[in-house]
Specification:
It contains 13 helices and 15 strands. It has 384 residues and is an alpha/beta fold. Strand 9, helix 8 and strand 10 form a beta-alpha-beta unit. It holds the Pfam family PrmA.
Length: 384
């Protein structure tokens, strides 16, 4: 969140100000102009590239069209339109390809984030043809706390999250849907869920299991469906805790699964400890990215270093991890195995699955080579 930051602008010869809200903690823009339907996409894009924010006073739907036009200009400028040539494709395998990709993403986000909307104290948008977004904003932000200004791009993310929360994500291993909240990773990638659903349970796991970093609660729900009588699911993100509790209650597992606020492990030991940490050692730039990006592999290192002390005798730790970072040159297989060894653990088995998400088969994706080679693994670990 952007805290107590304030955005200031001149309008009709007077100085105005409002609270600035940004879930990605983007600083409040220092230069702001007021615009309406008369502003062209070329002008808006030029201003945004120069770091000048545009506070919209025109028609809401026209603002959406303007944002789309700005996005097209961003893509043309970065060369993202069309399929990459052989030279560009060859660069994908280089260790710095990911960082260049992230830089381009960040620049695009900064540019498109310069188109701003006003919000009233009750989350209503005082623009023509504006949708009713009060429910979506309340889900993401909590109870209203006064008028503010935020980017249209952020609002569209809130609306999308609200729709996903209503619709839910089908989980074949459960025969049910999981409903992710705003800022909580959506279990769209089913391969890691399938691995947990199919791997043989270690002895004693029917009695107790820990789910570390539960997120939406999907893996805890799968373990409960498999007959594990008691599961302790941990997370330190309030949104994830609320999301997991809601999903598990709706699925009828509230008495079977205890949702606990903790940084990694709960107290005690269990015959089975499951963790699906962020896969890429990089800095997240938005709430939902915390489930994918983990600076210096903090959660991975923490899970491995503490696992032996939380395993019951003969128990197993299941580390569900993609090798995407390995194909990007951000972490080697040798480094992962060293972390496992230094934690006093040994590998007793592994199950692999290929990703089925559309980006893995999209040759126009900037990181296609890495995505096409990616494998997600369930590492069965035991104390030495």
């Amino acid at each position: 969140m952007s805290g107590d930051a304030v955005i200031v602008w001149n309008e009709d010869g007077e100085v105005h100000s409002a609270q600035w809200r940004s879930e990605s903690a983007t600083p409040a823009p220092k230069r702001v102009v007021v615009a309406d339907d008369r502003m062209s996409a070329d002008t808006a894009y030029r201003l945004a590239c120069e770091g000048t924010a545009i506070l919209w006073r025109g028609d809401f739907q026209n603002a959406r069209q303007l944002l789309q036009a700005m996005a097209r200009r961003t893509e043309r400028r970065s060369g993202r339109s069309g399929k990459p040539g052989k030279a560009a494709e060859a660069k994908v395998a280089a260790p710095d390809a990911f960082h260049l990709h992230r830089q381009a993403q960040a620049q695009r986000a900064r540019t498109l984030g310069m188109l701003l909307l006003p919000f009233d104290a009750d989350y209503a948008i005082p623009l023509r043809r504006a949708p009713d977004v009060r429910h979506a904003c309340t889900e993401a932000y909590g109870p209203p706390a006064g008028p503010f200004v935020a980017s249209l791009r952020e609002l569209l993310g809130l609306i999308g999250a609200h729709e996903w929360r209503k619709k839910g994500v089908s989980i074949p291993a459960l025969g049910e849907r999981i409903h992710p909240h705003y800022g909580v990773f959506s279990p769209l990638r089913g391969e890691y869920v399938g691995l947990v659903a199919e791997a043989p349970l270690p002895a004693g796991a029917e009695a107790l299991a820990f789910d570390i970093g539960t997120g939406s609660g999907v893996l805890a729900a799968v373990l409960a469906r498999r007959g594990v009588r008691r599961i302790v699911a941990t997370d330190q993100d309030p949104r994830a805790l609320a999301c997991a509790a809601e999903n598990l209650s709706r699925l009828g597992f509230a008495t079977q699964v205890e949702v606990v606020s903790a940084d990694l492990f709960p107290e005690g030991r269990a015959p089975l400890v499951v963790c699906n940490p962020p896969w890429v050692p990089a800095r997240p730039t938005s709430p939902v990215e915390h489930a994918v990006y983990d600076p210096d592999s903090r959660m991975l290192r923490g899970f491995l270093s503490g696992l032996a002390g939380h395993l019951a005798p003969g128990g197993e730790g299941w580390l569900i991890l993609s090798d995407f970072a390995e194909h990007l040159g951000l972490r080697s297989r040798a480094e992962l195995l060293t972390l496992i060894d230094e934690a006093g653990l040994k590998v007793v088995g592994r199950f692999d699955a290929r990703p089925q998400h559309p980006r893995a088969a999209d040759p126009s994706d900037a990181l296609h080579r890495a995505r096409a080679a990616e494998v997600t693994s369930l590492w069965r670990l035991a104390a030495r």
